[in-house]
Amino acid sequence: MTQELISANHAAAVAAVLAGRANRKARGFGGGAYPITPQTECIEYLCKQTIEKGHIIRVESEHSAMAACMGFSLAGARAFTASSSNGLAYMTENVFAAAFYRLPIVMMAVNRTLGPPWNIWVDHGDTLALRDAGWIHLYCEDNQEVLDSILLGYRLAEDRRVLLPVLVCQDAFVLSHTMMMTEVPPQERVDAFLPPLDLPHRVTDRPRTVGGLDFPHESEVHRRQQQEAMQASFAVFEECREAFRAAFGRETPEAIVPYRLDDADVVLVSMGTTASTVKAAVDEARLRGVRAGGLRIRLFRPFPEEAIVRALAGKKRVGILDRDLCPGLGGILWAEMRALAGRDAVVQNYMVGLGGGDIRPIHVRQILDDLLAREKSGAPVFKEVGA
Amino acid sequence: MEIRLHGRGGQGGVTCAKILAAVYARLGKSVQTFGDYAGERSGAPVRAYTRVSDEPITNRNKVYQPDHLLVLDLSLLGDDTVAGLAPGGTLLLNSPEGPEAFAAKFGAFRVATVDATGIARKHRIGTRSVVIVNTTIAGAFVKALGIGLGVLEETYRGLGLSSNFQAAKDAYESVRVAEAGSPAGTRRAVGAGGAMEGARPAPPPATAKEVVPLQEHVEGPTTGLRTGNWRTQTPRYVENLAPCNAWCPAGNDVVGFVQALGRDGEIAASAVLGRSTPFGGVCGRVCPAPCMEGCNRREYDGSVNIRGIERWIADKAPVARLAAAAVKPKRVAVVGGGPAGLAAAWTLALEGHRVAVLEGEPELGGVLRTGIPTYRLPREVLDREVEAILALGVEARCGQFLDRESVARLAADYDAVVLATGLQKLQSLDVPGARLAGVEQGIHFLHRVNMRGKAVLSGHVVVLGGGNTAMDCARSALRCGAARVTVVYRRTRAEMPAIPEEIEEAGHEGVEFVFQAAPIGFEGDGRVSAVEVAEVEMGPPDASGRRRPVVTDRKRRIECDWVLMALGQSADLGLLPAGWTIRDGRCFGDGRPLNVWAAGDLATGDGTVTHAIGSGRRAAGLALRELGEAVEVFSRPDRARAVPATDIRLDHFARADAARDITVPPAVRLSGFAEVSAGIEGRTEAHRCFSCGHCTSCDTCLVYCPEGIIRRTKGGYDVDYSYCKGCGICVTECPRKAIEMSAS
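^ Those are the sequences you sent over. The predicted structure of the assembly is below.
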């Protein structure tokens, strides 16, 4: 293991290259590259590497970037790409296709506000718009988790019980461009963790049709199989975490990550780096005698409903912090979770840090104060943080 | 511990923050470093941050209450810059002044100063206009925080920045620190995570700025952001020297007439061409076209066919210029009616002066008439352009060659004299048999052909030489009855001074070439029957840059019936009265300057029409200025200043072959002296011109400007400098180097 002072964008690229090289004894590595702020650093790093049996195609659009990944993956290569925001929007048709083809592609997405008007800062709305695309979603809290999730993602995606693509999400700039010391594992350990990919349905030199016509009786089975794979992936995710610990000698977080939750009365739920700020606010609240706790959703698809229900059992107040907005509904995380708290709990939605504003502990404290003052749930609240 | 940096885009503030983080990482601390993003264009204020802790860092907020602050650009220093800085915290400033200069305003802090810009400039880090100070000032900070130089050196090595370490070390050694005036404030403990605010006076809360409703965002090109103090450089539209203009010895505005043709047509183009030359039709046919050697398109897909364009313009729209009226007309005699003399006469007459041209031949034109065959230059073209000169009131006195006495008399009789007698002395061979019948000077042969109608030759004609005269002799000989013509040249084909197209056409017409052969004698009984040549090896380059021919003793005979020598010409200074000398184009009598100037080959020996024109214009200008006239004297531009091809954005231009001149098939043209070339077929060739250094209003700058603040004006563009951030994208994207950045 070496410690390197690198950004999370670089961490993602480093992980992709390690995973790619680990497949050198099989069908190699490939992907499509198309830059977009704030993902560009990742793709640039990737394109500079020389990878045995590896080939990164500089394509003309995100749509083609995913098409290239599908081609590589179908041919048995380990495939990777990265995008963000409107790039993901443009890629969307093929994002769905990759999942329907059951291809174990891993994509890194830097969460960035969708435009226009143009904004390059963090907002989770871009990847949450791909909620129903049939991908496994992981949201990261720190630099190390970005690197680890890419590696873990390949093992999870390539498991024969799963065979689903994995989306690893990280917050724009707050993660993507922030440099921290990151543990980079040696290639041998990655080789051991990621055995050569043997895609059961890979194309060979025998011609065959991929993605032909489905009649209703076929589609209903295919769709059910996607759901069964998603359900199966909970257990496989845990196995992968176990294998990760064995291979690299450290933990990678669970599907949901509690913080001082056990004895908490009031819980703040969030995704991504917001959870770090929640921890600081929870610590401060505890000093004031408030029994606060935090809960971070790391695995968003498949949605760890049972685990969340267990975590929130008996909690009196639950604040759900969304860095996204589904106009006409409210926060997407809130919409998914509001029925999972106890029957008597106050469950309140706060939209905070939309468009990338710096969510500071003081803002979380204000949210906590609002939540503590509530007797019953209300309409979603927009908590504006300014710059 | 939290550190904040304030710098400008391009100074490397984010990397500086990373260096500081790397230093602390090497000391075993947890570190985190990041920058502010979005305004990261050149010159924009940029902030960067570094956190250091003994425990794992989870706080990902920006730094609002730094323990230490670095200011990379002093123009950013103000109350809002130091907002939140802990009392007693280090305030490191990039300034040549000592910390005491800032004590009055920032005495509550521990002020440190270092001349990072000076040190970085000394070490040549960055460019002349943008000095990159990040790696330098980091050294000063490390010293101010009491960290050893060894750690700094290791850090630089680890980051691959060793080449910048000396600058950092200079900063380390020269930083000056003044401790805070007031007792150091209570430091916030170095701790994990985001401590709640309130320990220190909080920075002003983010004020609720007015937000434009979403539906109004569509008004205007983009959200306007005033420049403020963002900009350090400013784009300016400029006109740079095009290589064609720099290369043209006649001083033509080549890019001007080519662009005028493409944009406005023949009449407009002819007006531009006619500003600098009376010989567009002549040069459009016989010029060796140095402009095409300089053309930036040459290595891309072939030079623009400028010679063809010049001919097209001059033939389609011959320009008739009118002479100005001089207040006090001067009387000037021009000796020699060749291109230099005529160009001088034209320049003088246009200014309204009275000019007499004295020519020994019966008609004006010089070598254009006596030397160049009509299949290259039809006489009606020459006559047309000579007549246009005479129409300005120039008096022509032809038919008598002058002697030195009459030259001296002219100097006394006229206000000024321009001597342009050309190269009258012919190079001959001092070898056995040189006086045999059938061995003659090519110039004499061409004179006979051109001035007396057809000369008759027969059998095998050998032409000695490799210049344009040799080509003219060879091709004329074919038209005068020679059964076979062989050109014998000392060097290789690549070194032939003749115009490449002439060599090519001669080959098409059947002229044979013997290279690397030097004549060492002629054989024959009364009349030449063979040339004896020796094989030549190419030695090291001589002063002209061409490889020196080394004559060997390997000999051979070439049987022939006729020999034409075209071995070069030189100036005949026998015309100058006793005691006269020529220096820098002016005549001196016994060391004193005279009212006599030399022009053309007599002065320069360059041997082309285009050089002659430039030289004639210059001599006329020098003479007029000496006579007290306020005229601009033409001088050749400095080629080194021309826009190089590397400054042209080639991907802006589709590849397209040059339009070649249409030529009459060899079998047809050998039957007489009719013009061989019909020129180009149309004016579209002008559209291939890159317009190097000259704005064409192509809108590239306007399209690429990220601020949308470049607007069309009559004849060009306006930049709204109140919004321009100096990002330089317009300059980078300009296809033709017609915008440049300059320091604001």
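The first helix of chain B runs from residue 13 to 26. The CA atoms of residues 288 and 499 of chain B lie 6 Å apart.

Shout if you want it in another format.
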